[in-house]
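Technical appendix A lists one of the benchmark inputs used to test multi-chain prediction within the project. The record comprises two sequence entries:
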Amino acid sequence: MTSHVVIVGGGATGLSSAFWLRREGVAVTVIEKGIVGWEASGRNGGGATHPYSPLFREEQRLWPMMDDLLGYPTEHRPQRVRIAINQSQLDIMRATENLAAKQGFKVEELDNKAMRELIPWVGDDVAGGAIYHYGGQANPQRTLQAYAWAVQDLGGTIMQHTVVTGFETTGGKITGVQTDQGLVGCDAVVLAAGPHTAQLAAMLGISVPVMAARAEMIVTEPVPLISVGGSDGNGLYGRQTLRGNLAYGGGPHEWIDLPDHRTPRAVNSPVMRSVARRLFELFPKLGHIRVIRSWAGVIENTPDGRPILERLDSPENLVVASMSSVGFGLSPATGRAIMQLVTQGHCDFANLDYLKLNRFEGLGPNWAEEVGWRPWSPEEEGAA
Amino acid sequence: MTRPMDHTSIAGKHFPTAEHVPLVVLGAGPAGIAAAVEAAGLGLKVMLIDEHPVASALMGIDVPWMFGERMTAAVQNQGRMLEQIVAARPDLQAAFDAGVDVRLGVYAWGAFVEGPTSKALPGSLLGLADEERSWLIRFDRIIVAAGARDLGLAFPGWDRPGVMGAQGFAAATALYGAFSGRRIAIIGSGALAAQVARQAAAAGVAVAATIDATQRITAVLGEAEVEGIAYARLDGSAPATAACDTIVLAVDLVPNVEMFDLLGCATKFAAEKGGYVPVTDAAGRCSASVYAAGDCAGICDASIATPDRAIASGRNAARLAVADAGRAAPAADPIPPADTADRDAWRRAFLAAHATDRALTICRCEEVPLEDLVGVRPPRYLDYDATKFENRDIRTLAAMGPVNQDQVKRLTRAGMGPCQGRRCREQVQTLLAMQGNQASGDIPMPSYRAPLRPLPLKVINAADETAEMRAGWTTWFGIPAQWLAQWEPAPEGLSWQNRHNRSYEG
């Protein structure tokens, strides 16, 4: 019986894991280097529509229950609308295999008239699109605090502003997590530290290939509520919040180096003007609506963009979890899967066989550099 | 051999810039004009940028100052207002004469500089905009002379049209000549209140009452608009009322440090300087290419009373920038030490006297009352179980680590509205500190983000973006295997091994 689990990382994945473990009566301590939900988990589009994931069904099943389960509002709203502003976007949308439809979820095409009725701000000549009768979106910041408060309400411990400095292992097991606040004993560990998962795993001699990047979003002043807040397209992801603000992102990311355990402040770049341009193209009747804010966050990707979700063989009480830049929306399901990995060694509701670390065997140390995943400066062009 | 490049990343993207300016001076107040004239006189090419006249729509949401809906319709004619502003700032003529490239009615809404998460820029960029479009310029050095903002402080009725700030009042009377009121009450008793009284006299505006720190405001009279003010001594004695159409909040100003934050410069809280101010080296540099001049570097009574200190600091910043640019420049002129009053104590005293009713609105844009702020409650348009919050408040949050204003903002929405937190940022900081028995400076400065002015989509829109930006655009990274069924192995052609072998070229 696992009696005390230390979860490294107070983001969506770690906090959800702590929540599900605590519901099973397992003692949990979440160790977070800063503030819960402070990094990418609290700075994303809030989408919860991931049909390519083995956790998709569970994601869809759990989200409508999360407010009740956690006891705090997440601002979850169901459904998603994909907008094609022109024929070529519509053609691509139709040609792309819809993995959700294949799994029995309902997709309904929208023509010009139907789209304009649903979203009054699209252009008169909008090509159309589709409404997904599945998926949805939530408020990341509110949800992350809800997870944290729910963990505390259930008697779990959250240590903020605490940095993990190493691990104690005995007989092929981790027995303690060393921190700048002292040693925390444990029976099992979940590593869910986003871009920092690689550095932490390296302390245990385990190679986790992830590379960090910065991405950014913009926010407008509130506009009247539309019925499906998660309406996007034209190269953007995003949503209308329940307050009415439009929060959208997309476009070029910037690969960055993370020299130590800290996450540097993620700044915005002039790409934000191009995000605004695409939002104006998407909603041409909102040209007068003002952008009031922007933000950026740091996320990690694995070489194939797919998660690593695995309870290792050695140390056998360690679960490694990186969601490869798509963590928030899946988090209710991810946390439950990780709870099962910790308590019973396998997940009984999703096939995680292909999300194991061993798929990267043979990957060289310079893998990221070799595919161009590295910081870039215009000075390179001058030197070339 | 060319290194492989991820074409969906920022690598290889270019951001067109309209010009490359050796020295930008931001703000055409006394400090900025003095800096621009001095630097131009010493041989540097200078662009002087100022946002006035700002769009009347921005004034309507109290950006950049608290205008309190007391501007006449004249401000809707920006061409006319431009002439008014040139007339109101005669020193601008010296800048024109010195060959300074003067840009009025231009918003500096963003700065993009190299940092740990930003390496792909060709140099330091500034985001500019007018009412029609936005554009980028590149600069080598920048003197920020962005002045001061109004200090918003809540009192019963402060959300009524007709409550304005001292900066808003100064702009309405002296700068724009477009004040619609006739009779004001002044809140404050220091140098700023005295300045408001002088400006009122000069503009022929009557002062009905001055309410000082020994008194508290009990009510704003009137239905839709301000018609008067009721006040009493702090102990409740000597109640009085005064008829007025405008209330000018003149307890203090706030150094306008937003651009320093975007420029990557450190700030620190200085109670004697009116809030967060840029950290400078001994010579006055905020960073190798950023300099501060005037009120944005700190407020003091002497700088409120006369422009002399601002002018001297502008000149000194210019000399430093010119010398750093490798040109000869005179040494800095001495500036007398500033007074060191504890200006933070004024805020605390005001809020201790006025923020007593838990229903008092603190964030006006998002309608956040004091009780929701200190109770870290969700906004009221959400359904939630109130019993869950009975044992949660700012103190329980503080038990998990120092209170962070950005975190509280995310939970309560205080400061998240269209005025971009201008009216409540400082008082939220002070209230959080007071609740947690902390020093005000223990509350980290909430971050500033571009755009520093609310800009319409059609304006901030990158109409000038390059073809490679469009060609390399993806919604979310460009990793094809990510979007295919993950309960199966990635298809042969899209596995990392395969991408690896063909040295990914997008």
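Residues 502-506 of chain B have pLDDT under 50 and may be disordered. Chain B touches chain A through 93 residues (CB under 8 Å). Comparable benchmark entries are summarised in Table A2.
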